[in-house]
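Hey, can you fold this one?
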Amino acid sequence: MIKNYGSLLWVALIGTLSGVIHYLLSVLFIDSETIISFTYPIYVLYAVFITASLIIVGTIIALHKKYKEQIGYVFLLLTSIKMGLSYVMTLPIIEKSEVSVKTEKINLFVVFILFLVIEVIHTIKVLQRTD
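Sure. Predicted structure:
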């Protein structure tokens, strides 16, 4: 049972490591005034997406044994909800008229795609288990 939840630790570690790398690259290559003007700082984006991914992966792990045939549908539902929440998060960014909007949209998109890939990889591994 505990072995199955090691995936949650993996998601948290990969997400945190990616967040640190993303932040360091941002500090190196993006003007500090631009970073300060972001609606959502990079650490907030990663906190939100790590939490969402932990919920998705945890739900998939918890439901795997009992509802193996429905795991794909659960994944699609939870990912769709996360996408909707991401869109709601994007609305204040879209309404801004500053130069930093493009950079901020790219940051949000990169974080979304990163965690989507992590969740897809995990879901594929769960579906391939024979236990």
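The longest helix spans residues 101-128. Let me know if you want another pass with a different chain boundary.
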